[in-house]
Design brief:
There is one protein chain. Strand 5, helix 5 and strand 6 form a beta-alpha-beta unit. The protein is elongated, with a radius of gyration of 19 Å. It has 8 helices and 8 strands. The protein folds into 2 domains: 3-101 and 233-252, Rossmann fold; 105-227, Rossmann fold (3-Layer(aba) Sandwich), CATH 3.40.50. Helix 6 packs across helix 7. Helix content is 45%, strand content 18%. By secondary structure, the protein is of the alpha/beta class. Strands 2-1-3-4 form a 4-stranded parallel sheet, sandwiched between helices. A 4-stranded parallel sheet has the order 6-5-7-8, with helices on both faces.
């Protein structure tokens, strides 16, 4: 049986995003035993989803597992998945769609790992988790599932750290300025700011800092603030992709 995987990403003009997706596809193909693995974009630049689907179907696959590679779904993603499933009527390849990368214990563990790596990199390896405040910065979405996903994450971080909260880059509140101000009122000795983004795109490289730096400069009461890496190509993300794929493929049988 020939098995394929198509990872659906939001899309970006940044070359780092494509490089990360190339690596993720290679690892997922090897780790999941797939004969084919590729990615496509929902928007911004090709390959778009119709091209991704047609390219995968040209590989003479028995099954194609479509992975929405999003930390929370939105209306555009849901519409794109519906369009993908319409292709089922035109092919003998069985199309299976997984759940997005949201509300999962692996994401909690990955954030905890990013926090510890940031502390170690800043020379604060001896700092106890209970002395650390954590601020998670996410993208923001009109879909209520975005906040539910961040609530899930933060609620599971709170028992480990002195404080844990989140703020959003755009669309919804709390924005970055109010998120940093809220942290400052608690007087953290160490504030670790988590970049809760899948890729090193424009948001991670520029947009977050455009709001974060002025917010930190305007806030007093923070002993030291350090930022984490984005989620990127961490093996835990590949494991989560494969777990989502396996549960969808098993459920479809």
């Amino acid at each position: 049986m020939r098995r394929g995987m198509l990872i659906v990403d939001r899309g970006s003009r940044e070359g780092e995003v494509r490089a990360e997706l190339d690596e993720i596809c290679a690892r997922a193909r090897e780790g999941g035993g797939y004969d084919y693995a590729a990615y496509c974009f929902l928007e911004v630049l090709p390959p778009f989803m119709p091209e991704g689907i047609s390219g995968a179907l040209a590989e003479n696959l028995d099954t194609l597992t479509v992975v929405p590679y999003f930390l929370y779904p939105g209306k555009k993603l849901k519409a794109a998945v519906r369009d993908a499933m319409r292709e089922q009527a035109t092919t003998t390849t069985r199309i299976i769609v997984t759940r997005p990368m949201r509300m999962h214990a692996t994401l909690v563990r990955l954030v905890e790992s990013r926090v510890r790596d940031a502390l170690d990199g800043a020379g604060l390896s001896g700092t106890a988790d209970s002395d650390v405040d954590v601020l998670v910065i996410g993208h923001g979405s009109v879909d209520p599932n975005a906040k539910r996903s961040l609530d899930y994450l933060v609620e599971r971080l709170r028992p480990r750290y002195r404080n844990a909260s989140y703020c959003l880059l755009e669309i919804e509140q709390p924005d970055i300025a109010s998120g940093v101000a809220g942290c400052a009122r608690a007087g953290p000795r160490v504030l670790v700011i988590v970049f809760y983004f899948l890729h090193e795109g424009a948001h991670v490289k520029r947009d977050v800092y455009a709001d974060l730096n002025p917010a930190l400069e305007a806030s007093s009461g923070i002993g030291r603030a350090i930022v984490t890496r984005h989620l990127g190509t961490d093996p835990m993300m590949v494991d989560l992709i494969l777990e989502r794929a396996m549960e969808a493929e098993t459920g479809a049988n």
